[in-house]
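May I ask for whichever protein you like with its backbone structure tokens?
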Amino acid sequence: MRLYSLSVLYKGDPKVHLLKAAYDVSTFNFFQRSSVQEFMTFTSQLIVERSELGSRASVKEQEYLCHVYVRNDGLAGVVMADKEYPQRVCFTLLDKVLEEFSRQVSKMDWPSGSPATISYTALDGYLSKYQVRPPRV
């Protein structure tokens, strides 16, 4: 069971943009990592774009399951995981991250924010904390 990415996006008008993201592409070949990360970013934006405000969904994309939560205020989160990762845990993580993000980052920064301008550093920690490591033998 693995988590591959955790993203916070803003569903604005007319388009969706990435505010902050964390990736774990360590299981991929070194030469594939940047294209896998690009794919995850693009897919996250596309799924949020196609989701209604106030909705939750799980979407299968290739060998990944993408769990998306779009709040009524336009703030959205996407977790990309493998098929075995529990859906309920993904949505609990998204609830927690979006709530914390909205407390730490001003709502006025969401429409114009980008990964370079938003100062929110907890995503890497959450991605690592919620990663399910295989038991040691």
User: Anything to note?
Assistant: The domain at 3-123 is CATH 3.30.450.50 (Beta-Lactamase).
